[in-house]
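Notebook, p. 212. Picked up where the previous page left off. The plan for this session was modest: take the two constructs that came back from the sequencing core last week, fold each one, and keep the raw output in the notebook itself so nobody has to go hunting through shared drives later. Recording the first one now, exactly as returned: residue sequence, then the structure token string.
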Amino acid sequence: MKTVLTIAGSDSSGGAGIQADIKTMTVHGVYAMSVITAITAQNTMGVIRVEPVAVKMVADQLDAVFQDIVPDAVKIGMLGTAEIIHTVAYKLREYGAKHIVLDPVAFSTSGSPLIEEEAIETLVRELLPLVELITPNLSETELLSGEKITGLEDMKKAGKRMLERTGVSVLIKGGHLEEEPTDVLVSEEGIVLFEGRRFNNPDTHGTGCTLSSSIASNLAHGKDMKTAIREAKAYVARAISAELHLGIGRGPLNHMYRSFCTKRFK
């Protein structure tokens, strides 16, 4: 069985973070492992509190995983602090981790900041050179590239700039575009557009975590990058379309729609 490690924060509501990652990886037929970087008190209405895990504990979790069950791929989500980012980067380099997908979680779905401002430089300098793919949304792309984004051409420009700076492929997610959501992959092979479909469903809590976990799982199975992304986008679309409708605010996806659906995907 293929194995995938998620390095991320815990979401008490179960819709994002570690919980969403494990659900996604499980339905993709891989064995999921976790390193928890932060504990959050949050629900569908927003983030109430974030408490980072001690750096030594993060390091010990990484050692425990890599010294026993070596992952075939790694998904990275919320890291939060410069110290945790440095530790994760050091350990991934030490163990020669492969197929690393980074979802640079800077803000929650509700808009709450999830990373310290001074940690961004550490992320770019130490972690980005190790990853195979980074999957920022529009606001995270603006933060990392310094480019203002209003449409597809801006996404392409920002992606090229990030690729030139880091040498890392970038999938810029277009879910916040006013037009139909189109994701832009910028890599050494060129630019590829992945067109999407907008659903009349506000319950999108955890879409970024879910997409990156799905991509990492597909890479672990040996699929090429374009196929991994295309199949991951299809999975997320179906998980949104299943309309789980939990909670008062912006609810989670139905990660388990393959086992049970509240609404047939059309």
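Okay, moving on. Second construct, recorded in the same format:
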Amino acid sequence: MKRSEINKALRDMEEMAKACGFALPPFCHFTPEEWKKTGHDYDEIRDNMLGWDITDFGMGDFDKVGFSLITLRNGNVNMEKYTKPYAEKLLYIKEGQSAAMHFHWTKMEDIINRGGGNVLIRVYESTSDGEFADTDVTVHSDGREYKVAAGTQVKLCPGESITIYPGLYHDFELEPGTGPVLLGEVSMCNDDNGDNRFYLPAGRFPEIEEDEPPYRLLCNEYPAAE
């Protein structure tokens, strides 16, 4: 991705959060110059990769497969000093974008429509060899439990949520014509390095072409504290 595309995506997400009345924590507003001056008192952000993020799942087509996100809080399964067993993210998805099909080995999460249009969450149970199971899926959504056929897209309107259990394949896209969506994710501790199982091979961070200065640093770009 070009840095200019990333900068626009982050600005768009900022505007969406503002429109939905979701105030971001102070570190989300740090400029690249301010990050150079931060000391070890911000190591939790560096170590746990909190803050701005972009993924295109390594597919190089962000406008179709990918989205912008912010990790607001998280523990760390590899560092004993961070004992939080939970995580929270915001995701911004514009029309035409989608997330790659995947499940989590350990993490349970709630995906919440925080505002905007409607999101469609496709669900499959997984088999022991990582394929789609041809069995009904039990959906847990805002206190309601019901069953749907394998591959059903569960629609979440603003304010609605779905619980994703370990081993449950899921992807998501927007209902056409309803507009962009701000999604919330409340989950167990997040480990992107070891807890994701993608149905098709996928990457994590995009390669960046530096065609203009960064508007915000991404969570994998922070300079070390002096």
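Notes on construct two before I forget. The longest strand covers residues 86-93.
Flagging for discussion at group meeting.
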